Each structure stands twice: as structure tokens, then as C-alpha cells.
């Protein structure tokens, strides 16, 4: 949808490994993840995983791509032709106003993985692609809104980067502090920004 | 200024250790920091450091507090009675539009330290305080602007959390991706938000 790159095709075996990785990450966190623990979730041997991925880092980089593929597929299904509602929906998916336990753990896992990108080039390239794809998803909704006159003639790239930075920063704060209401406050202000800065009054 | 907590007083010896920690962090990064390397920068023995701080984590938590103390002192000196310019100044300090090498390295160090807060309670408490203090600094400028009628009657807490999340998220993206212009685009959009959403037109 938002990306020009060809859609990654995941084999059934790879998808099963990715699902097992997701469960293992939620259960053990990023720091305590091992191929053994993923194999336990998969109910197969470690060799079955190493047949597809040479190292744990290879597997985790693939997992991040899998997660973004899934995210884009969901967004494609769940958004339609109402740019303001579609934008709100993407923001809620990225930064739930009231995250449940699974969403909280996933966010902690993502912050752990992203911290590797400070020093690890392969993780850095993957997070570069992730942010590119997420920004493109937001941008395409803003462009759609400008085309159908629900949004003003703003700069879609800048607005997309602003929204992505706010969402990433609020999520980052939620995972690394005990400030319970800060992320929700940022989201409410972001929604009011979208309402006042983007929406046309007809 | 922005915080109600009593100002931390740093002895000369502590300040020297903090300055040495800063230099060692810029030189070696967070991952390769050791008490030995800080002692080298200090030109004293490791014992001189352990006399003040029991562990490396104790020292790093103190360093974070020292950095925020310094930041607040600078802001107090460099801001005045022009809320829009003061706000722009704080944002530029937190997220330089064109960071130099030292600022880039410092941001990488801060992301490395913050990632510890996902699992380490002491770091988590410290980053909770840091974000509280930064949000309070932004909030007090917004409140000042509302009081002197340069800003509209917005919710200062929500706006402060929005600005802090955008700044943190853009900085986080800058350090963990190769997306060169994303942070600047977010900042330009944030400035336009402040201009259109906050400023009164008289």
C-alpha cells in the first residue's frame, strides 16, 4: 500500500517461526530471548529455526519486517475513505490510548530492539525502513485527505514526520518512565492539532 | 525554576567526576563505559570515584541528574520574557535542528541510557523525574504565554506533553535510523503547530 517495495512473502514455516518469536518475546522480553525459547514456543528443534535464520539477530530483524508487514495489512483492511478517521485509527494502532498488557509488553520489546540500532548497523537499517514505511502510511492518508478536500493543503511529509515523532516519543516515554498519563495527554493534544491544523471547515 | 524539588548541590569533587563521565561517555559511548575510563578522564584513581559512587549505575543515575540540573540552569539564564522565543529556544536545546558531532554523540548516549529504564527500576525512576522536569519547563513557558496573552488559553499540560513527546520521538528516530531529514521535518511541523495553535493574533 504505502511502500513501493515488493511485498515480502512469508512461507508457512517462516510465519510459524515469527508467531513463536512473538510469543517468546512477550513471555521473556527482549533481553532474555533465546533460540531455545523460541523453539519451545514452536514445539520444534532449534535446528528447525537455524534452517531458516543463521543467527538470533537475523531472526529478530526478520521479525521486525514481519511485524510491519502485518501492521500494513491490518491498516489496509481497516482504513477506508475517511481520512480523518483513518488517521485516528492508525494513531490508535501505533499508540493505544489505553494499552492492554500485551500491547504494553510489545512496546517494551520494540524499545529494547530499537536500542540495538544505536550501535548495530543491521538493526539500524531495519528501523530506518520501519519508520519510512510508517511515515509513508501516515503521509498517504494525509495526501488522500488533501485530494478529497477534507484536509487543508498542508505539507504531507512534514505532518507525517510530526505525527510519527509524537507517537514514537509518547510510546518511548510510556515504556521508560512511570508517567502514567503523559502519553495520553500527548495523544489528546495531537488529535486536537490534527483537528485544528488539518481539517477543513466547510 | 520549573521543579518544586530543592536544587541539588554538587560538590567540586562530584562536579569533576560528572565532567569526566561526560567526556568518557562521548569518547567511548554508553556500552563501553567503565569506571576505569572515567578515572582516566579524571586523572585520578578509581578509588576517588568509588568514594562518591558505589556502582557504575549509581554514577550514571547521578550523571543524568547533573545533566538535567545543568540544562535547567542554562534555560533559566537564556530564557526571558518572550514565551514564543523561549519555547523555540528550549526546543532547539532539546532537539537541535542541525546537531554537531558532540550533540549527536550525547543523544546516542542518552538513548543507550534510557533503554536501561525498560528493565532497571532505578533508571526508570530517574527518567520519570527527567521527563517530569522537562515537561514542567515547557509547561511553565506555555503558562507564562497564556498569562501575558501571547498564547491562547490552551491546556498547558497537554501541550507540554505533546511537545516533549515530539522532541523525544524525533531525537529517538535520529539516533536509531539513517533518516537524515525526518527530525528536522518534525521540528518544522512542530514550530508551525506552535505558531498556529498557540499564538494569539492581535
UniProtKB/TrEMBL annotation, chains A, B:
PROSITE patterns: HTH_TETR_2. Residues 34-53 bind DNA. The keyword Transit peptide does not apply. Residues 11-71 form the HTH tetR-type domain. It comes from the Archaea. Gene3D superfamilies: Tetracycline Repressor, domain 2. Keywords: DNA-binding, Repressor, Transcription, Transcription regulation. One of its GO terms (molecular function) is DNA-binding transcription factor activity. This is Transcription regulator. It comes from Halorubrum distributum JCM 9100.
